[in-house]
Design goal:
mainly beta, 23 strands, single chain, 14-stranded mixed sheet, 7 helices, three-stranded antiparallel sheet, 432 residues
C-alpha cells in the first residue's frame, strides 16, 4: 500500500497544464491503473485528438517544470506523464459513421481523417486499451452556437490589486441552447535575446580526460541560425467558464486573460487567440468541479476514488477505473495583437525574467583524469565545460586580466539565444 498522487492533464489539447492532486489515501496498484481520458470534439473541420494516460506517483512537478539556465532542458509534459499506448480509439455518431483514431505519438491519438461535429448529431467515444479493457462515453452533442463578436485589451487591475492588461471578449448567440461557455487561449509573443551576439562558441575535439592537459579546439564563429528573435507560445493553464442565469443571453466583457504589466511576454509584441466553447450543463459541472479541486490543497483527503464524476465508464461496470470527460462543443475563435508601447508608451519594458549579468571564467581546466595533488579551485566552472553542457552564449572578448578571468565574456544561454524560450520560425499568422 502506498500514497497516491494523481496527475491530471485536463484537456491537454486545449489547456496543456499539469495539476498535482494528492489523494490522501493509501491505495494498491489497482488505483494506479485508473485511465485518464482527455477528449473534446468540436465543430471545426480538422483531425481531432484524444489523449490517454494513467494515474501516476510522480512528485515535485512544480520544481521540475521550472526552467533552470544552468541545467539541460527537458520536455516536462512528455517526461512526466505516463501515457497509455497501443489503444484502439474511435468516435461514432448517431448517423452510424465511425471515425477511427491512430496513435500519432505516445498516448496521443489522432483521427484518420478530418471531420467536424454537426448540430443535430450525437457522438460516442469508444476506447479499448491494450489489455482489452473497454471504455465508452455517454452520447454527447453540440448544445448551440455562439460567436465572439469582439475581442479587445484594456488596462485594468486584478483582484489582487496588480496593474496590467486584461483580454476581454463579447459574444453573440446564434442558435440552439447557449448557457454554459468555456474559454481557452493560445498566446504567442515575440522574444528578443537581450545579450545576443552575431558570434558564438564552437568547441570541437574536446577531451576532458586527456593527460597531461585537456585537449580541445575553441573558435569564435558566426552564428548559423537565427537566435536573436524568437516566438514563445503558451496554452491556457486555467479553467475559464461562465454560466448565464438565463439561456441565450449575449455575454459582454468576459476577461479571459490578465497580464501583469511586468510580465516579460508583453515586452515586444503579443498575440492571443481566444477560443469560446459552447458546452452543456454536465460539462460545465465537471470542469467547475475540476477547477475547484485545482485551487485547494489536499483536495482528496476525505474523498475516495470516484471523486470526479465524468461521462465515461468501463464496460465491466467497475467504478473508479476511468476519469475524464468527452465533450462535444461548438467553437468560435478570434485573435488580437498589441505592443507593450500601445499601453505604456513612456515606460521601460518589463524586465527579462533571468539574470543576464556578463560573466567570465578560465577557458580550460585540469584534466578530469589527473590523479596528483590539487588544491581548491576558487574559479567558476571553465568556459569549455559550460560550452560542452550547452549552458552559455558568447558575448564579446574579455580584455581584463583578473585571477579567474578568461579570454571571453559570456552569459547564460537563455540571455543570448532566444531558441531556449521559443521558436526562431515566425508563425504564419504573425503580423508586425
Amino acid at each position: 500500500m502506498r500514497k497516491v498522487t494523481l496527475i491530471i492533464l485536463p484537456l491537454l489539447l486545449f489547456i496543456n497544464c499539469i495539476e498535482e492532486f494528492d489523494l490522501g489515501i493509501e491505495a494498491d496498484d489497482e488505483v494506479l491503473k485508473i485511465l485518464i481520458v482527455e477528449a473534446t470534439l468540436t465543430n471545426e473541420l480538422k483531425n481531432h485528438t484524444v489523449a490517454l494516460s494513467r494515474m501516476d506517483t510522480l512528485v515535485d512537478l512544480g520544481i521540475d517544470s521550472v526552467y533552470n539556465p544552468y541545467t539541460p532542458i527537458r520536455d516536462i509534459n512528455r517526461d512526466l506523464v505516463r501515457y497509455e499506448t497501443n489503444a484502439t480509439v474511435s468516435i461514432e455518431n448517431s448517423n452510424g459513421i465511425t471515425y477511427s483514431f491512430n496513435e500519432s505519438s505516445p498516448g496521443i491519438y489522432e483521427s484518420d481523417i478530418q471531420f467536424a461535429a454537426e448540430m443535430g448529431s450525437s457522438y460516442l467515444l469508444n476506447i479499448v486499451t491494450s489489455d482489452g479493457k473497454k471504455y465508452t462515453s455517454t452520447d454527447m452533442e453540440i448544445e448551440g452556437l455562439a460567436s465572439i463578436s469582439n475581442i479587445y485589451a484594456e488596462k485594468t487591475t486584478s483582484e489582487s490589486g496588480t496593474e496590467g492588461i486584461g483580454i476581454f471578449v463579447d459574444n453573440t448567440i446564434e442558435t440552439g441552447s447557449v448557457q454554459n461557455l468555456r474559454y481557452t487561449y493560445d498566446e504567442t509573443y515575440k522574444i528578443i535575446a537581450p545579450n545576443w551576439s552575431p558570434n558564438e562558441f564552437k568547441l570541437t575535439n574536446y577531451d576532458p580526460c586527456a593527460l597531461p592537459e585537456v585537449t580541445y579546439d575553441l573558435e569564435i564563429v558566426e552564428r548559423e541560425e537565427e537566435q536573436q528573435v524568437c516566438y514563445g507560445n503558451n496554452l491556457s493553464n486555467t479553467i475559464i467558464q461562465t454560466q448565464q442565469s438565463s439561456i441565450n443571453t449575449d455575454v459582454q466583457k468576459v476577461m479571459v486573460r490578465f497580464l501583469d504589466e511586468e510580465n516579460f511576454i508583453i515586452s515586444h509584441r503579443y498575440s492571443i487567440e481566444v477560443s469560446q466553447l459552447v458546452s452543456g450543463s454536465a460539462s460545465y459541472s465537471f470542469y467547475d468541479q475540476l477547477n475547484n479541486f485545482s485551487q485547494t490543497g489536499n483536495i482528496f483527503s476525505q474523498i475516495q476514488p470516484g471523486f470526479l464524476e465524468g461521462n465515461l465508464s468501463s464496460e465491466d461496470g467497475r467504478q473508479g477505473t476511468v476519469i475524464g470527460f468527452f465533450d462535444v462543443v461548438s467553437v468560435s475563435k478570434s485573435r488580437l495583437f498589441f505592443n507593450y508601447t500601445d499601453f505604456y508608451p513612456n515606460e521601460e519594458l518589463p524586465p527579462y525574467p533571468f539574470n543576464c549579468n556578463e560573466l567570465t571564467a578560465p577557458e580550460s581546466h585540469v584534466s578530469f583524469c589527473f590523479s596528483g595533488m590539487r588544491g581548491p579551485n576558487p574559479c567558476p566552472q571553465s568556459i569549455i565545460q559550460q560550452i560542452d553542457l550547452d549552458l552559455i552564449s558568447y558575448v564579446k572578448p574579455n580584455f581584463n586580466d583578473g585571477q579567474c578571468d578568461g579570454p571571453h565574456i559570456f552569459v547564460p544561454k537563455v540571455c543570448g539565444d532566444c531558441t531556449v524560450l521559443g521558436s526562431n520560425i515566425q508563425p504564419d499568422f504573425w503580423v508586425e
